[in-house]
Amino acid sequence: MHLPPYTPFPVVATANVVLRQVEESDLADILDISFYDARPAGSIAEASTMLRQINDDYARGECLHWGLAHPQTNRIMGTVGFYRGFAEGTGELGCVLKSTFRGRGLMQQAMRLAIKFGLEEIKLQNVIALTDKQNYAAIRLLERLQFQPGQADESSEIRYSLR
Ligand SMILES: CC(C)(COP(=O)(O)OP(=O)(O)OC[C@H]1O[C@@H](n2cnc3c(N)ncnc32)[C@H](O)[C@@H]1OP(=O)(O)O)[C@@H](O)C(=O)NCCC(=O)NCCS
Questions:
Q1: Residue 62, phi then psi, degrees to nearest 5
Q2: Given this model, what pLDDT does residue 153 score?
Q3: Is 63's C-beta closer than 6 angstroms to any atom of ligand 1?
Q4: Boundaries of every domain in the chain
């Protein structure tokens, strides 16, 4: 496996989305979608603390967090990445789009880039994503990307995996 951090930070792109590192100057744009350990940021200062925690996790090889930038304006529309470590060659994808950019297929493109990077560069054996059973937008996204659902159980989440 080829775990983070990388020099330079990996930038990958399609014609419609650029995945790049999130900078302090992006925080105002993404305050509404800034989370760490499922906790939302309440202020720019808190989002900045969260970004430092994410960068520390990245430096320890435990996550890879991209901002999903607009190719012309460079402004961040969402985030995508691998979180919670890479134990046993498994990468867990997480993603969120600002609501105004949903329904255009942008996350599908971003996820494809992240999956390709995970399999080809990090050399992951498995890519997984956890989502709430009621999160139909996420379920549609994962199923379009050919993720397969695991066995349903009592929990409120479904574990999807790619291979
Ligand atoms: C999950 C989430 C990222 C999905 O966003 P999204 O914009 O629906 O995702 P996609 O990029 O797959 O876009 C697909 C939608 O765009 C539409 N679309 C429009 N133009 C399109 C195009 N050119 N190509 C593909 N899809 C297009 C599709 O029809 C589809 O709409 P539908 O689901 O109503 O049929 C978003 O709802 C979100 O941020 N949710 C909160 C965080 C979250 O739940 N994360 C999931 C964790 S696993």
A1: -110, -5
A2: 83
A3: no
A4: 12-128
